[in-house]
Amino acid sequence: MIEQLKSFLPRRGGGAQIVPERSVAGRTLLLMITIMSFLSAVTLGGVVLVQKSAIAWSSDVGREVTIQIRPVEGEVMESNLRTAVALAEATPGVAAAHALTLAESEKLLEPWLGAGLDLTAIEVPRLVIVQLADPTDADIEGLTRNLGAIKGASLDTHAAWRQQLNTMAGAVVISGLMVLTLIGIATVLAIVFATRGAMASNREIVDVLHYIGASNKFIAGEFQGRFLSIGLQGGLLGALAAVLFFALVGMAAGNVLSGEASAQVGVLFGRFALGIDGILGIAAVVPVIAALTAITSRTTTQRFLAETS
Amino acid sequence: MIEFSDVGLRYGNGPEILRDLTFSIEPGSFHFLTGPSGAGKTSLLRLLLLSLKPSRGRVTMFGEDVSDLSQDRLLQMRRHIGIVFQEFRLLDHLTTFENVALPLRVLGQPESEYRPNVTELLEWVGLGERMNALPSLLSGGEKQRAAIARAVIARPKVLLADEPTGNVDPDLSSRLVHLFAELNRTLGMTIILATHELPLLDQFSYPRMLLSRGELVIHD
């Protein structure tokens, strides 16, 4: 497949390669570019996974607000709950509202207070879950204002949670981009050294090309062709390894955790499924690495030739 | 075609390797450049190849003063000059055909265009049967003929040869010089052939440029 791809690379005049394949420190550079591509693709895939999970989580949390009614002396809780549900249902942009029953509230507190809890013996705040039809159009301010009529009622829009989640996701994305940048810089530096080494070891070819009237541009193009080929192969191998890595990690996560635990982890942290956008992102690593390799080697070659001419 | 006027050459701050060179080369002529080792033959050839600039004096080639040429113009002029080296300098990973075709590839010609010309030239220099052989499989004489073919395939106006017979036996040396003579006669190429083999010069009646300690002592 790589040989087929290489056949599409530009060749001048259709003849044999002027810069021999073996002379460009091929294997070492290929391995290095493969590793760099793999790291880039894994970082990119990780960023895509985190971002997708954060967006999904934020979207789910954003579609729901909670009315909390604290017990107030002289107030009838059940009546206040009904009023709150009615006020919520009358608010524009609200799809549905329902008060949590005592049994549901007990279940919510079970992790902290243990099973077999009897809430009738304790005065605890009660919750009304409000589902929003469209979070952007819902009249949250109006609902907050109207809830002022119910003593002890307050509205939690989970804004702080969402803000924190978005900040965390943003930090992960920025960290990922910084890692990608560092990998890119390391790749460029490695290619610069490899190109200068290749130029020095192919000095005879460069001299002959100069003597027969080749321009620096032509010589740089010949070296660029070799490095583009190596970059393309390394990028492809690294990207394939990254896709395989995500597939294996996804399978391993599914096998290690029980069905229920796996579902909960999936809800909390997202699944290790890259999706089409993740796959496309990783696929984009291949031409980017190849182009980076070709451009870097061409620039380095031209600079080297200008210095030595 | 080529004019040197009071030309001197030094490398860096070292002594002058070439001094007070004044001569002219007419189009279509054949000259032997001779002198003992270290006389400056290779340096003079490098000046003629435009890979060095004179430290002083004036060099005119093809009607242009070469001292202030741009890189692009220098490259264009260099394409009118062919060069043959003593050590052949063929690219080991390319076949005879590919080595000879190299100057045409550099000029951007497609293989379909240059293949007939390269094949014809290789047959003319007696390498028709060795077109697909790598240089490592060629004899010294074959390598030099391939190097000559590479130097002339793009039809340069001037052909320089730096000790082209240095690595072959006397009989083959004579045949190689006859090949240069044939190129000069049939293609009208100006040829400057550097050699220190005096018996070889005696076989031909071409004018000689004798360098001694960087000075041109004879130019007949």
Architecture overview:
The complex is a heterodimer of chains A (309) and B (220). With 309 residues, chain A is of the alpha+beta class. Chain A folds into two domains: 2-58 and 163-308, no CATH class; 71-151, no CATH class. Chain A has helices at 2-7, 26-62, 77-89, 102-113, 140-147, 159-201, 203-211, 216-256, 259-269, 275-308, and strands at residues 64-69, 94-99, 126-132, 153-156. Chain A has a four-stranded antiparallel β-sheet. The longest helix of chain A is centred in the middle third of the chain and has 43 residues, at 159-201. Chain A is elongated, with a radius of gyration of 31 Å. Chain B has 220 residues and is α/β, with parallel strands linked by helices. Chain B folds into two domains: 2-80 and 156-219, Rossmann fold (3-Layer(aba) Sandwich); 92-154, no CATH class. The mean pLDDT of chain B is 90. Chain A binds chain B through residues 12-16, 18, 20, 204-205, 207-215, 218, 309, and chain B through 49, 51, 71, 75, 78-79, 83, 89, 91, 93-95, 98, 101-112, 114, 150-151, 154.
Brief write-up:
The complex is a heterodimer of chains A (309) and B (220). Chain A has 309 residues and is an alpha+beta fold.
Tally of separate helices of chain A: 10
Show the largest interface.
Answer: A-B, 20 and 29 residues
The number of helical segments of chain B is: 7
Q: Specify the CATH class of the largest domain in chain B.
A: Alpha Beta
Count of individual beta strands of chain B: 10
CATH architecture of the largest domain in chain B: 3-Layer(aba) Sandwich
The amount of helix of chain A comes to: 55-70%
